[in-house]
Design goal:
Layout lengths: L1 E8 L3 H12 L10 E8 L7 H8 L6 E5 L5 H11 L5 E5 L3 E3 L3 H12 L3 E3 L2 E5 L5 H6 L22 E5 H7 L16 H11 L4 E3 L5 E5 L6 H22 L3 H21 L7 H21 L15
Parallel strand pairs: 1-2, 1-4, 2-3, 6-9, 7-10
Antiparallel strand pairs: 4-8, 5-10, 6-8
Length: about 300
């Protein structure tokens, strides 16, 4: 089995170093090592990650390739990483701010073999890079849903931070030669769009709860403003993807009802703010998510990454 790990990066040398060290430490005690390769795509036109990757490549356990994608935007870099993966049978996506546990890859492959699934997703467990306010820890806003291994999961619970995908499936659902839709370059959500298409094509997606990657959360994200902005963006891109793939009036009406429901529920929860800041931010987070859904349903695109200097 030929497997390629696809990594995109942008000016995160320490994060990329930790990730590559984690990949170098992968173990295959039960299944034997696959024909593994690592493809790193740098979304920095200056190629700032080149020296680090070339240094790792000298002694890395598996072939490591490095490419630069100068066009700013996550889907451009992800599409370049798929091309860099060559003829791999399966592609595994992981972020440059994560570190996989030693048995991560083996568990993804084991669950794929056991279930025959075309997509296998695993948990990205958060940890904070430094001290954060107590209300952030208490809120558990950075924790994601988890499922029993083998559980079929919906597209909303699958992302390119920890997932294995059959190469043929990506080629089947490509649109205009694009696997990741490049219209989502500044808004994010191109992975949501992809896995919605995979699901609509009838391919099975399952969960591997033992395939754990650790997701480093910097202190800059442990703020109410970032949490609320991200909630709005998630709601917005979810609705935009849904609108694009199913523009029927019925689907739009259903999303408006869901988005409006989130807003109303959040407003009703505001009195709980007397119990602590985590309750206040939780209520506002629900409002922002619902507002993002409503704006996305109307076709308004929130371009979160346009305000930043990086695309990945």
């Amino acid at each position: 089995m030929r497997v390629a790990v696809c990594v995109i990066t942008y000016q995160r040398p320490e994060g990329l170093r930790r990730l590559l060290e984690g990949l170098a430490g992968l173990t295959f005690d039960k299944t034997g090592s696959p024909d593994l390769r690592i493809a790193v795509v740098d979304n920095d036109a200056a190629g700032s990650a080149r020296a680090l990757c070339e240094k790792f490549a000298l002694s890395f356990p598996w072939p490591l390739t490095y490419r630069v994608e100068p066009r700013r935007g996550i889907p451009f870099a992800r599409n370049a990483s798929v091309a860099a993966a060559g003829d791999a049978d399966f592609l595994v996506f992981v972020d440059d701010d994560e570190v996989p546990e030693p048995g991560w890859m083996e568990e993804l492959l084991r669950v794929q073999r056991a279930t025959g699934a075309d997509v296998v997703a695993g948990p990205a467990l958060p940890y904070f890079a430094g001290a954060v306010p107590d209300w952030v820890v208490k809120s558990k806003f950075f924790e994601r849903a988890r499922f029993a291994t083998g559980t079929a999961v919906a597209p909303a619970f699958v992302a390119t931070n920890n997932v294995l995908v059959r190469r043929g499936v990506l080629e089947e659902v490509a649109q205009g030669g694009q696997i990741f839709d490049e219209r989502y370059d500044m808004s994010g959500g191109s992975d949501t769009h992809l896995f919605m298409r995979v699901h609509r094509a009838g391919h099975r997606m399952v969960w591997a709860d033992g395939a754990v990657a650790r997701d480093r959360i910097p202190a800059s994200r442990a703020r109410a403003s970032w949490i609320l902005q991200r909630a709005y963006r998630f709601g917005n891109t979810l609705a935009l993807c849904e609108r694009d793939l199913d523009p029927s009036a019925r689907t739009r009406l259903a999303r408006i009802v869901k988005g409006g429901g989130h807003v109303v529920q959040g407003l009703l929860l505001l009195p709980l703010a007397v119990l602590g800041r985590h309750e206040l931010v939780g209520a506002l987070r629900r409002v922002c998510r619902g507002a993002g859904m409503l704006s996305g349903t109307l076709g308004l695109r929130y371009q979160e990454y346009r305000r930043k200097t990086h695309g990945a």
